[in-house]
């Protein structure tokens, strides 16, 4: 049974399950013009999966690899806020299988369990006018296995390896799809302010000194908040800095 045949699958959403694909993100881009409903694309195996900034992403069988293709009527800036929508949804979904107190959200797009990387989020969009034509939200979750990544700053961990309940990828996708739909309703009803507030409640190292590395500089400061656009705000020796994109270390 595919996830969208599950009785708890969110209404109005579709699901495509593939045995093998280069990446669910690439598949979403190929199908974008033909899909008119929010559609999850899940693959049992990816041959060319990637993460942020084109980094490779390993996904052993038993882990979740999925992309949500959607067509929100919004600007590129608003579309980027779905990274935080996805993070909140992942936290809520994962908390059904592992103690939520072990889960934290690392800016800009990772979910940690006991300080190790358990899930990653990747956004891609396309559009020529004021609004995006489509948005893809790629999500990888280490449910059963933690890939081996040499010299990883945040060592990969899995839900099962950290003492969580075992869950098949398809079953977890049903939980995640519902959690994402709920977060979308929050965004529609209450705006990004509510999404931001919920994200900050679980932000990793909020109030601590962290390091942000952009393509041009390294910035150290106290992690104060994220602003109304989702930018990282650090209190540095030279005053507050708002950082739209960076890799974070602590």
UniProtKB/TrEMBL annotation:
InterPro entries: aa-tRNA-synth_II/BPL/LPL, Biotin_CoA_COase_ligase, BPL_C, BPL_LPL_catalytic. Its EC number is 6.3.4.15. Residues 11-188 form the BPL/LPL catalytic domain. The keyword Ligase applies. Pfam families: BPL_C, BPL_LplA_LipB. CDD domains: BPL (cd16442). Keywords: Biotin, Ligase. One of its GO terms (cellular component) is cytoplasm. GO terms for molecular function: biotin--[biotin carboxyl-carrier protein] ligase activity. It catalyses: biotin + L-lysyl-[protein] + ATP = N(6)-biotinyl-L-lysyl-[protein] + AMP + diphosphate + H(+). PANTHER family: BIOTIN PROTEIN LIGASE, BIOTIN--PROTEIN LIGASE. This is biotin--[biotin carboxyl-carrier protein] ligase.
């Amino acid at each position: 049974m595919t996830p969208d045949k599950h009785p708890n699958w969110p209404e109005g959403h579709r699901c495509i399950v593939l045995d093998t694909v280069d990446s669910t993100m690439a598949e979403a881009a190929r199908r974008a013009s033909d899909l008119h409903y929010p559609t999850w694309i899940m693959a049992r195996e990816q041959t060319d999966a990637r993460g942020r900034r084109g980094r490779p992403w390993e996904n052993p069988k038993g882990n979740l690899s999925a992309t949500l293709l959607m067509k929100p009527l919004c600007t590129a800036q608003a579309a980027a806020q779905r990274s935080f929508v996805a993070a909140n949804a992942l936290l809520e979904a994962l908390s059904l299988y592992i103690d939520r107190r072990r889960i934290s959200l690392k800016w800009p797009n990772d979910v940690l369990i006991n300080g190790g990387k358990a899930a990653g989020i990747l956004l891609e969009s396309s559009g020529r006018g004021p609004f995006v034509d489509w948005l893809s939200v790629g999500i990888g979750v280490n449910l059963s296995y933690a890939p081996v990544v040499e010299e990883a700053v945040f060592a990969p961990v899995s839900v099962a390896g950290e003492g969580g309940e075992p869950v098949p990828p398809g079953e977890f996708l049903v939980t995640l799809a519902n959690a994402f739909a709920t977060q979308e309703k929050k965004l529609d009803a209450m705006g990004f302010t509510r999404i931001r507030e919920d994200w900050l409640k679980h932000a990793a190292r909020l109030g601590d000194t962290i390091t942000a590395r952009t393509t041009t500089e390294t910035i150290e400061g106290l992690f104060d908040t994220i602003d109304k656009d989702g930018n990282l705000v650090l209190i540095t020796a030279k005053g507050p800095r708002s950082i739209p994109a960076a890799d974070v270390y602590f």
